[in-house]
Design a protein that fits this description.
This protein is α/β, with parallel strands linked by helices and 376 residues long. Helices cover 51% and strands 11% of the residues. It folds into three domains: 198 residues, Rossmann fold; 77 residues; 82 residues, Winged helix-like DNA-binding domain superfamily/Winged helix DNA-binding domain (Arc Repressor Mutant, subunit A, Orthogonal Bundle). Helix 3 crosses helix 6.
């Protein structure tokens, strides 16, 4: 019923592109790091606003979603996305690729039948060739970039990107290589920037702006055009429902669509409120069920992780003491805590980088746990 609704955020896209080019108030020439919860419209913004703005500026863009294939090493996903653009942007390559398997480009040789890069070719080489062939600045967008931290190869690729940025951009005042990284968890994404031994140390994490009342007003106006004049959604009811869904446009559209095509004779605005409240309740019931089946130690680990965030050290003396005090156990082994954490990782509660940093997988769970604690 809703069809494809396009809510443009052109001003935001222009501001980000200005900062990437070093022309805005904010300077993101070292990289733009956008963090926001899942399903709040980050990928849609990248594909429908940021990349079109880059195209309008005559930039070449490469987009890769590290969650598009979570079984594949993030390093391979990034490299293959660049290789794909290398072929797609060169007509000569497109003609040759069906007849031969290897292509010589200047000083590098690429085998497109094999994933990754040969030992004598760096990611900087690959990106430099792409920029040279296109004769355009390159915008590389990596969606869910924190997933690169899950493998050693992924981390090394992040370091390679930092090195490529420095090498390629050193020759000109305006950057030829611009980098955008997004993440659904701020703590995970921060692993790339907060420590001296991390590839983008010193860069800033920017909170991705959630869609606001202007989006729900737009949606209300658009949907109401297809509804009878005597039963339409009110802007206030749409905004309230949007907040209940955690500012998730996809979820809101699904609820609005189901209400609009229902045979219920009630007020659409009232039904929208009921359905949004029901959606939130079902999600929180799921959190409740998942939490209650955990062991007391696992529950404490989650509470302390949420409380201390990046400062949490699970096996420190103070943490071990807290476990023992809350559980009222005089002795607790490190191996017992390790087993509990591994189980939480397997259940999807906790994310761990290959370097041992921890973060909560679902920030919505933290909101529920806070509510649960306050009302208990």
């Amino acid at each position: 019923m809703l069809g494809k609704l396009t809510f443009k955020r052109a001003n935001l896209a222009r501001a980000y592109c200005d900062s990437l080019a070093g022309k805005g108030i904010a300077d993101a020439r070292s990289g733009l790091f956008l963090a926001g919860p899942r399903r709040v419209g980050k990928s849609t913004f990248l594909l429908e606003d940021l990349l079109p703005e880059a195209k309008a500026r005559k930039w070449l863009s490469v987009y890769v979603d590290l969650w598009s294939n979570r079984k594949m090493d993030p390093a391979i996903l990034i490299i293959e996305a660049v290789k794909k653009e290398l072929v797609a942007r060169k007509n000569t390559f497109q003609k040759l690729i069906g007849r031969i398997r290897k292509i010589n480009l200047k000083v590098i040789e690429l085998d497109f039948s094999q994933p990754g890069l040969p030992a004598n070719v760096t990611l900087s080489d690959l990106l430099s060739c792409l920029i040279a062939l296109s004769k355009k600045p390159l915008l590389l967008v990596i969606d869910e970039a924190q997933h690169a931290l899950s493998t050693d190869a992924g981390i090394n690729t992040m370091f390679s990107l930092k090195s490529a940025r420095d090498q390629i951009n050193s020759a000109h005042e305006a950057p030829d290589l611009m980098l955008v990284f997004t993440g659904s968890n701020r703590d995970k994404l921060a692993q790339l920037v907060v420590k001296k031994d991390q590839p983008f140390f010193g860069s800033e994490i920017t909170a991705f702006p959630l869609l606001g009342r202007d989006f729900t007003d737009f949606l209300t106006s658009t949907v109401n055009k297809a509804l009878a004049a005597n039963n339409q959604f009110t802007p206030a009811s749409m905004w309230d429902a949007f907040q209940k869904t955690g500012h998730r446009p996809e979820i809101l559209r699904q609820i609005v669509g189901s209400v609009a095509i229902s045979n219920n004779a009630g007020s659409f605005s009232d039904l929208l409120k009921q359905n949004a409240t029901l959606w939130q309740s079902k999600l929180w019931e799921e959190y409740e069920h998942e939490y209650q089946v955990l062991s007391p130690l696992q529950q404490i680990i989650l509470m302390l992780l949420i409380q201390h965030e990046k400062a949490w050290s699970p096996f420190s003396e103070s943490s071990m003491q807290q476990y023992q005090e809350i559980l009222k156990q005089p002795a607790l082994s490190v191996s017992t805590v390790q087993t509990a954490i591994q189980s939480l990782r397997d259940r999807g509660f906790i994310w761990q980088s290959s370097r041992g940093a921890y973060a909560l997988e679902d920030l919505g769970f933290a909101q529920w746990l806070q509510h649960h604690t306050e009302t208990a």
